[in-house]
Amino acid sequence: MSSLSNRIDIETEFSALTLSIIASSAFGQGFESIPHAKETICHSFNEVKDVLEYRALRLIGLVQFLADLPFWGKKTIDEASKKLNEFVDQAIADRRNGKSESLCSGQDILDLLLSAVDEHNKGFSDQQIREEALTFVLAGHETTATLMAWTL
């Protein structure tokens, strides 16, 4: 018989897997190319998700004054968001400066965002690119991970 210590938290494993896959399609590179990125990003994302769930159930985010108070996980959200932003900002800077190339055979999301222009032929700012890339990565990640875990 197997012992209880051999249990695997499949939801956590699927969460890390789907985040890595989606990030690879967004940035054209896996977390493996950046030391400790996978652990940092997964941990930061899960921290933000947990605090946001807590705050949402208590309707804290509905009143901006309450959401800005240094309670109910505000510091956790700020610190984890900073780590996520730093990761994406580094990926953007590396791609702009030619320090990294997409591992995808075609263009990845970051390539598309960097080359996109509006009707005035003006490109996105780094902040806009970061926000769009994070939205893409974080929006599909948790739903997919949960679906995979429940499928088993």
TrEMBL record:
Database matches in SUPFAM superfamilies: Cytochrome P450
Q: Name one Pfam family in it.
A: p450
Alphabetized GO MF terms? heme binding; iron ion binding; monooxygenase activity; oxidoreductase activity, acting on paired donors, with incorporation or reduction of molecular oxygen
Q: Which Gene3D superfamilies match?
A: Cytochrome P450
Matching InterPro entries, A to Z? Cyt_P450, Cyt_P450_sf, Cytochrome_P450_Monoox
Q: Which UniProt keywords apply?
A: Heme, Iron, Metal-binding, Monooxygenase, Oxidoreductase
- Return the similarity comment: Belongs to the cytochrome P450 family.
**PANTHER family recorded for this chain?**
BIFUNCTIONAL ALBAFLAVENONE MONOOXYGENASE_TERPENE SYNTHASE, CYTOCHROME P450 FAMILY 4
Q: What is this protein called?
A: Cytochrome P450
Species lineage: Eukaryota, Metazoa, Spiralia, Gnathifera, Rotifera
